Amino acid sequence: MLEKIDLTKKLDKNEYKKRMPQLEAQLGRLQRECKELNIPIMIAFEGYDAAGKGLQLGELIHALDPRGFQVHAVKKETEEEAMRPFMWRFWTKLPAKGRIALYDSSWYRKVLIDRFDQKMKDKDTQSAYQSIRAFEQQLTDGGMLMIKLFLDIDQKEQKKRFKKLLDSKETAWRVTPQDLARNKEYDRYTAINEEMLQETDTDYAPWTIIEANDRRFATVKIYTTVVNAMAEQVKKAKKPLENKSKIIPLVADPYLETSTLSKVDLSLSYTREEYKERLEKLQSKMEKLHGELYRKRIPVVLGFEGWDAGGKGGAIKRLTEKMDSRGYVVNPTASPNDIERAHHYLWRFWKNMPKAGHVAIFDRTWYGRVMVERIEGFCTTEEWQRAYKEINDMEKDLTDAGAIVIKFWMQIDKDEQARRFKERQQNPDKQWKITDEDWRNREKWDQYEAAVNEMLIRTSTPKAPWVVVEGNDKYYARIKVLETVVEAIEARLK
Whose CB among 16, 297, 305, 426 lies 3.0–4.6 Å from 356's, allowing a Cys bridge? Predict the structure, then answer.
């Protein structure tokens, strides 16, 4: 891509002054329209050092209402960021609907600067590209407008700008030894950039190359690119939603379903004595292994799903009872609040992913998209169908970063659920656990069962497996959860 770019393009002062007022007015108007239409926007500035990323970003925000955007300067990872998957710090910096996020350098730093500095192994490059493409596709599929700008200058122009900065005490600090090294090895760094552009130039998040040798030309092209992209997104948002996927009621036919749940033996159980003996040994192991996780800096993500009254809370309580409370967090997942609804549905889960050496436990998870949201009509058919890949991609990012990921489905039968519901209703200390919604959900048992079977098959992977827990006997269920977690940690430590 870069070898075909004509860097001699220029714009004279008069033409610049003629064009800019109109472009600035258009940009301001479009920002207001995007806010009204709840369109989130991400604008990434990448390119060569001294190409003017910071300057051009400043020119662009000049026409924007400062209450509606935020600028993120992306530098070397902090210690906190380095202890999580590399995309975590960008998932946590997403704009809400109707807002704009601008990035001075972006999620591409890893495959550009880190790769040039040989901090990243070549074998990890393709995996990083895959994570980036998945990140961008998930967001754009969810309604994000993503604008990626690559500011291109030649080696001679870059060297001239470095010299000018170095000649002044006020600006010399802006030029680092790493900047000069990339200028010296301009061809090698260009090859890295060329590969990145080819690997990540997609129809849903295309690159726009900005000829940046001439600053006025670059400013006008950036404004024009952003204005055109925003205008197109506004046009799409205003179209009648003729082709929007309709909610198709799930028709369950047990005979036709590929079933995982039907194979579960719910008669499995332990006596109280067996349970107590096993529980004590496993909790003692878990206490020691938790310390090893911290020392070896291994993160763990555990997700709990299951039928209402399936025993999630009891299993989590026994799992964590002997663990150091400073090293784990239990995240209860309820219906999303207004802030969470204003972001991509995975945003609230990414925010709570653990750093290296810590454990994150989710009581209900991101799988709500393909269960309750699917069945209750809270998302479109298109949205829940693409969620399987989105979820698999997220879990791959976690395991690629070294996390142990296990998802538990707590399985009970319909009769056992009814018995537990009635027990809760009759016990004043447990009545808060049962709601009218729990009873209503029982009426859609067959639909939920079909959705769960599909979820288990489509999203159970070798590195992030689903474990179906036979839960009619609470003792058996709690022990199986503990055994599974202990065995996974011991296997990793070996």
Answer: 297
In angstroms, what CA-CA distances link 46 with 24, 50, 56, 183, 304? 22, 11, 11, 16, 40
CA-closest candidate to residue 95, choices 142, 58, 56: 142
Which residue ranges form the domains of the chain, and what is each CATH number? Answer: 2-238 (3.40.50.300), 261-493 (3.40.50.300)
Per-residue pLDDT at 260: 81
Report which of 111, 118, 131 is spatially closest to residue 192, judged by C-alpha positions. Answer: 111
pLDDT tens for residues 197-218? 999 999 999 999 999 999 999 9
Close Cβ partners of 448 (under 8 Å, ≥ 6 residues apart):
307, 371, 375, 441
Residues 161, 217, 95: CA angle, nearest 5 degrees: 90
Q: Name the stretches of the chain with pLDDT < 50.
A: 242-247, 256
* Residues 407/365, Cβ–Cβ less than 8 Å: yes
Other CB atoms within a 10 A radius of the CB of residue 18 amount to: 12
Q: Concatenated DSSP letters for 313-337?
A: HHHHHHHHTTS-GGGEEEEE--S--
C-alpha of 109 from chain center: 17
Half-sphere exposure of 257 (CA within 13 A, CB side): 22
Q: Let me know: does 372 contact 266? Beta carbons within 8 Å.
A: no
Would you call 224 exposed, middle or buried from its count of C-beta atoms within 10 A (0-12, 13-18, 19+)? middle
Query: Contact 459/392 with Cβ under 8 angstroms?
Result: yes
